[in-house]
């Protein structure tokens, strides 16, 4: 699958939330989008998935502009690029398996979804996905009874139920403690490595992007100001993305993930003392 974003733009009133964003993804990869609050990360992701309409530009997927799709074709594209949110967006009073089965919403009639009529095969697949993510034993619990990290894994399971080619994750770990954040990022990385799905993650923290992603896209004031490998993301470049000063230091150090992050910590400390 070749994805080519050409000058994607979204204007809200006088704000150019995303300003002529262009990039190409020509093979499955894990991409992190970083930038300060308000840089346009969420808007960019939501345009890719068609949750937000673009004001201008094209998103060519194997040559077809998915920004122009309507009706069933638009829904089909949306099921090809599943979305994960910071606040999980589960139905709290429903059990975990039902939440996962809701991933099929785009692929089947609303009525059968409304009445919770699922085939045995669908239920078995949902449980197999939960098992893969290490939370099968939670299958019959109400979603709201789970911890944040478990809920995010249920949201990932729901996304996988769609069998998407792309997973878009909008700040997937911003509400989680460092341990759960690590589990969720490990899960997303494994989905990329094992399934060959492209994962695009909006991330608040530079260290997470550097640790997990093959490619980092940096946004500032709606524009893509960096697009390269974690190695190319030097101190100077990071400063340009975040803007020098207090804001950058906070972003770099906020939700540092545990484990082997010595290098990242060192990097953050260096940023603080610079
Ligand atoms: N629905 C909307 N109506 C008006 N302005 C909006 C809307 N959505 C986003 N914006 C504006 O567009 C700009 C980019 O917002 P966006 O949420 O995409 O940034 P972000 O990088 O994801 O920020 P954060 O990290 O805080 O989520 C901001 O100035 C924001 O106020």
From TrEMBL:
A Pfam family that the UniProt record links to this protein = ABC_tran
Q: GO molecular function terms here?
A: ABC-type phosphonate transporter activity; ATP binding; ATP hydrolysis activity
Q: Where is the ABC transporter domain?
A: 3-246
Q: Which InterPro entries match?
A: AAA+_ATPase (IPR003593), ABC_transporter-like_ATP-bd (IPR003439), ABC_transporter-like_CS (IPR017871), ABC_transpr_PhnC (IPR012693), MetN_ABC_transporter-like (IPR050086), P-loop_NTPase (IPR027417)
- Its GO CC terms? membrane
| Residue ranges that the Swiss-Prot or TrEMBL entry lists as coiled coil | none
Annotated keywords:
ATP-binding, Cell membrane, Membrane, Nucleotide-binding, Translocase, Transport
PANTHER family (alphabetical) = AMINO ACID IMPORT ATP-BINDING PROTEIN, PHOSPHONATES IMPORT ATP-BINDING PROTEIN PHNC
Read off the NCBIfam families from this record. ABC_phnC (TIGR02315)
Q: What is this protein called?
A: Phosphonate transport system ATP-binding protein
What is the protein's species of origin? Paracoccus isoporae
């Amino acid at each position: 699958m070749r994805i080519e974003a050409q000058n994607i733009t979204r204007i809200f009133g006088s704000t150019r939330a995303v300003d002529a964003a262009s990039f190409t993804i020509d093979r499955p990869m894990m991409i992190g989008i970083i930038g300060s609050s308000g840089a346009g990360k969420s808007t960019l992701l939501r345009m890719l998935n068609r949750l937000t309409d673009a004001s201008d530009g094209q998103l060519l997927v194997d040559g077809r502009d998915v920004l122009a799709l309507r009706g069933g074709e638009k829904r089909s594209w949306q099921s090809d690029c599943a979305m994960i949110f910071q606040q999980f967006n589960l139905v709290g009073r429903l059990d975990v398996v039902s939440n996962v089965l809701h991933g099929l919403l785009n692929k089947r009639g609303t009525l059968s979804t409304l009445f919770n009529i699922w085939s045995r095969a669908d239920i078995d697949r949902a449980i197999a996905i939960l098992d893969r993510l290490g939370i099968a034993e939670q299958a019959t619990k109400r979603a709201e009874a789970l911890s944040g990290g478990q809920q995010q894994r249920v949201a990932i399971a729901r996304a996988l139920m769609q069998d998407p080619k792309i997973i878009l994750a909008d700040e997937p770990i911003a509400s989680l403690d460092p341990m759960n954040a690590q589990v969720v990022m490990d899960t997303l990385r494994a989905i990329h490595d094992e399934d060959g799905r492209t994962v695009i993650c909006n991330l608040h923290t530079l260290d997470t992007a550097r640790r997990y992603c093959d490619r980092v896209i940096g946004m500032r004031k709606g524009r893509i100001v960096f697009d390269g490998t974690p190695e190319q993301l030097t101190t100077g470049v990071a400063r340009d993305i975040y803007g020098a000063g207090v804001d950058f230091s906070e972003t770099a150090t906020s939700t540092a993930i545990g484990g082997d992050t010595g290098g990242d910590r060192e990097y953050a400390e260096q940023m603080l003392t610079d």
